Amino acid sequence: MSFVKNAWYVAGWSSAFGEDLKALEITGQKLVMFRDTTGKVKALEDRCPHRLLPLSKGKRIGDTIQCGYHGMTFDGSGQCVRVPGQDNTPASAYVEAFQVEERHGIVWVWMGEPARANPDDIFNLPQFSDPDWHAHQGEALHITANYLNVAENLVDPAHVSFVHPTTLGNAASENVPVHVSTSGEVISAWRWIRDAPPIGFFQKFGGFDGHVDRWHYYDLHLPTTAVIDFGSVDTKMNCPEDERDRGVRIFALHFVTPVTEDYTIDHWMHLRNTAVGDDAASAQMDTMFNTAFAEDKAILEAIHESEQRPQRRRPIRVAIDKGPNVYRKRIRDMIVSESTEDLGEPVKPVFIQHD
């Protein structure tokens, strides 16, 4: 399967993990997860090494999982602590354990080589801890599509005018140039629409009735985390691009989790600089986001279904595909780099390169 494994992926919101065993799948790897008696979330390979029954079909006993077939029992580190009917436990009687971290109410799992796991690499924004910003977790969007299509949609401002004409976009932005930057680690695409009618989202939430200046900044953090910084400000304020906090500003965060080649989960939430602590505003925004993201889901699933059919010619690419094209190349490079091991420069080389 074509997944980047050396990465932190979102398994879900912290509220989704309790005492009960929870089965899920990330990058084709099936996991069983639970919160132990100390409050820490554990993630184990969901497959008993004896007869391969998923451990999630068993039961939890204290901080261990007992297989539902023959009772082999595993602790939170994956080690077998009991084999009914014998005193010894074979060295091969274990399941793989995956490192888990919780940050800001989000559960992250490292799916790659254990030695490469660095919690400092987990995605973060300063606004998570800023009292002037409100964080609100949304839902999980289940999409029958490959994760690459889902992620590249999140670095593509150009689709907004056509896919979301009544929610996140309108016709005023159709021919506004999109700026793209691929020089750094984050792939970015953005545009400003000046002196235009407010989109449906900000008519309902921002309360704008006259013309606004509005923006979309799409930042894609590899492999699959996207931040969409969008907002509006009264045109008469003539707001500079680097002073967006003067307007109604929202970060829509998308944590895209590849499940299989044909199935992706987008855990989405938002941060906002207005209506802090207002639960009614959060509910109102959830309704609008649900409408908009259902529009994305319909498009992405239709594309995926079409991709499965034989094609007589290759799809074309146009100018607006710069960000997605770079994204796909970087993902390919990351997957290739994980498939081999670089031993570094030789001490006494017998191969000398001259170019």
Structural description of this entry:
The chain has 355 residues and is α+β, with helices and mostly antiparallel strands. It is 17% helix and 32% strand. The protein contains five helices and 18 strands. It has helices at 147-153, 160-163, 200-204, 279-307, 322-338; strands at residues 8-13, 22-26, 29-35, 41-45, 59-61, 64-66, 73-74, 80-82, 97-98, 100-103, 106-110, 134-143, 179-181, 186-196, 212-221, 225-234, 248-260, 263-272. The strands form four sheets. A seven-stranded antiparallel β-sheet has the order 12-18-17-16-15-14-13. The radius of gyration is 23 Å and the shape is globular. It starts with 7 loop residues before the first strand and ends in a 17-residue tail after the last helix. The model has no long low-confidence stretch (mean pLDDT 91).
Distance between the termini: 35 Å
Q: Write down the overall mean pLDDT.
A: 91
Strand order of the largest sheet: 12-18-17-16-15-14-13
Class per helix and strand makeup: alpha+beta
Whole-angstrom Rg = 23 Å
Output the helix-strand order: EEEEEEEEEEEEHHEEHEEEEHH
Number of helices: 5
Low-confidence runs? none
**Shape call:** globular
User: Main β-sheet, in a few words?
Assistant: 7 strands, antiparallel
Number of strands: 18
Question: Can you give me a brief rundown of this structure?
Answer:
The chain is an alpha+beta fold and 355 residues long. The protein contains five helices and 18 strands.
